[in-house]
């Protein structure tokens, strides 16, 4: 019985780690895209003001 409980705890912990990892990866990708788009957008605004 004790072994089963330990395995369930480990499985839950691994699932949490897995989901946490996915969330971190997605959020970092979104932030990176946002950062690059924001930089491009700022550059475009500067070019438009120059013209």
How would you sum up this structure, described in words?
With 51 residues, the protein is mainly alpha-helical. It has one domain (1-51). 96% of the residues lie in helices and 0% in strands. The protein has 1 helix and no strands. The model has no long low-confidence stretch (mean pLDDT 85).
Give a brief description.
The protein has 51 residues and is mostly helical.
Structural class: mainly alpha
Strand content: under 5%
Q: In percent, how helical is the residue content?
A: over 70%
Tally of strands:
0
The shape, in one word, is: rod-shaped
The residue-averaged pLDDT reads: 85
Q: What composes the largest sheet?
A: none
Q: Please tally the helical runs, counting DSSP H or I stretches of 4 or more residues.
A: 1
Counted up, domains total: 1
- Encode the helix/strand succession as letters: H
What is the CA-CA span between the terminal residues? 75 Å
Low-pLDDT windows of residues: none
Based on CA atoms alone, the radius of gyration comes out at 22 Å
């Amino acid at each position: 019985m004790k072994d089963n409980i330990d395995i369930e705890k480990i499985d839950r912990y691994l699932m949490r780690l897995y989901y946490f990892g996915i969330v971190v990866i997605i959020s970092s990708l979104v932030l990176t895209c946002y950062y690059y788009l924001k930089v491009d957008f700022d550059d475009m605004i500067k070019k438009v003001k120059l013209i």
